[in-house]
Write a structure and sequence with these properties.
The complex is a heterodimer of chains A (93) and B (316).
Chain A: E1 6-12, E2 19-26, H1 30-41, E3 49-54, H2 66-70
Antiparallel strand pairs in A: 1-2, 1-3
Chain B: H1 4-16, H2 29-48, H3 50-54, H4 63-88, H5 94-102, H6 119-140, H7 146-174, H8 178-197, H9 209-214, H10 222-240, E1 250-252, E2 257-259, H11 265-275, H12 279-292, H13 294-315
Helix pairs in contact in B: 2-4, 4-7, 6-7, 6-8, 6-10
Classes of the chains: A alpha+beta (93), B mainly alpha (316).
């Protein structure tokens, strides 16, 4: 197991849907990671497609930056359709 | 400058608000340690839990039973892997985790230190042991640590088949010959008390419980879960037409629950501290499998290295 990289696993449950992160596993290379992911994460027809990516290649935002990254969206209510009041007579918009 | 106290207060606030904690969020060291201990114990239990049942794969009485048992044992390997991955998000490596199991430093559920003597033991394990595990795991789907909660959701989805396949084995045998039914009764007599022990020490005697409940690592206490398990299981035993080996087991109208006898805590302590019937055998089997698989891991690493240098060479 030593030196075997950690892979993050993403599964598309059916065509038309996004690949979704399901977990991680160790493998000696990407090919084995796919095979292991198939055994570990799709024993009950959970998927039609698997992506694996070495965890070290993922750059993640820092939880400490949560406010500066995401709070500015909170006071921008005008980005949502419910901000705009429409006359009752108008049925579909 | 914020001090640790205010970090801890904010952390507890998040927990109180039912927010999940994710891998890179700040957390108290003790929370991290508690989780590593609990999740890895859980992972080890899944892995060691394959051994008592694996013992019967080659001797299953029919192809149908064999396929189901194989699938169940394979699930347990999968559950161990989900949980090892969740533990690793807390900053401990897989190798360390496995070393801790093999050196005896980390514990696994004491139930797996009991032997599987007959085929009906496989049924009793599915019904009682997986039943008790599910009781515990359903509550853990709401645990405060995100990666652990997600692993539990996945596990719970798969686990109910385990219990049904066990119950189905017992039901078939109970509808069979008198000898088969007796075999079931014997299995249940042996597995009932160890299954109750799976919920851990009584609340009054459980050193980590209060803090774990405050952190919502655990959502229900050991005794609450044990009571739920007893209440759920008694009617299922009646349908099988067998008795549970506890003369004090009786419905208590005023409590709305079944009363049951005292667990033999001395036996529990003995098994946890390594003196159960199969502790040595289980660990030896684990270590042996790991060591004998070493050449496979080495070969895979060598192959990956070779392919990497080949593809580098073709680029150059």
């Amino acid at each position: 197991m030593k030196d075997w990289p950690l892979y993050e696993v993403f599964i598309r449950s059916k065509n038309g849907l996004n690949h979704k992160h399901v977990g991680s596993l160790h493998a000696s290379d990407a090919h084995m990671a796919i095979q292991n992911a198939r055994d570990v994460y799709t024993r009950r027809t959970e998927g039609v497609s698997i992506w694996v990516v070495e965890a070290k290649h993922i750059t993640a935002s820092n939880p400490d930056d949560k406010e500066s990254l995401f709070d500015p969206a909170e006071d921008k209510v005008y980005r949502h359709p419910t901000f705009y009041e429409l006359p009752n007579a108008l049925k579909h918009m | 400058m914020e001090n640790v106290n205010s970090f801890e207060e904010r952390f507890q606030q998040k927990i109180d608000n039912e927010e999940k904690i994710e891998a890179r969020d700040w957390m108290p060291e003790a929370y991290r340690k508690t989780l590593i201990r609990q999740i890895s114990q859980h992972a080890h239990s899944e892995i060691v839990g394959m051994l008592p049942e694996g013992n019967f794969i080659t001797r299953a009485p029919s192809l149908k039973r064999k396929l189901a048992l194989l699938a169940k044992v394979q699930d347990e390997a999968g559950h161990g892997l989900y949980l090892y991955s969740a533990t690793e998000t807390l900053g401990i490596s897989r190798d360390e985790l496995i070393d801790q199991l093999h050196s005896g430093k980390a514990k696994y559920s004491s139930i797996f230190n009991y032997p599987t003597l007959t085929w009906s033991d496989i049924g009793a394990i599915g019904w009682l042991v997986d039943g008790a595990a599910i009781m515990n795991q359903v509550a853990l789907c709401r645990t405060s640590y995100g990666p652990y909660a997600r692993a539990m959701v996945r596990i719970c989805k798969e686990e109910s088949f385990h219990q049904r396949q066990g119950y189905d084995i017992l039901l078939t045998m109970c509808n069979g010959t008198a000898e088969q039914k007796e075999m079931v009764q014997d299995s249940v007599n042996r597995w009932w008390w160890p299954s109750l022990m799976m919920f851990g020490p009584s609340d009054s005697d459980s050193p980590h419980s209060a803090q774990s409940l405050k952190w919502k690592v655990k959502r229900l206490s050991n005794d609450e879960l044990r009571q739920r398990f007893v209440d759920m299981t008694v009617p299922q035993a009646e349908i099988l037409g067998i008795t549970l080996p506890d003369p004090l087991l009786k419905y208590n109208e005023s409590r709305g629950h079944y009363d049951f006898g005292e667990i033999d805590w001395e036996e529990f302590r003995q098994v946890v501290s390594g003196n159960g019937p199969c502790n040595k055998e289980r660990l030896q089997a684990r270590v042996k499998a790991h060591e004998e698989g070493n050449w496979v891991r080495e070969a895979a690493s060598a192959y990956a290295e070779k392919m990497k240098s080949k593809s580098l060479a073709s680029v150059a």
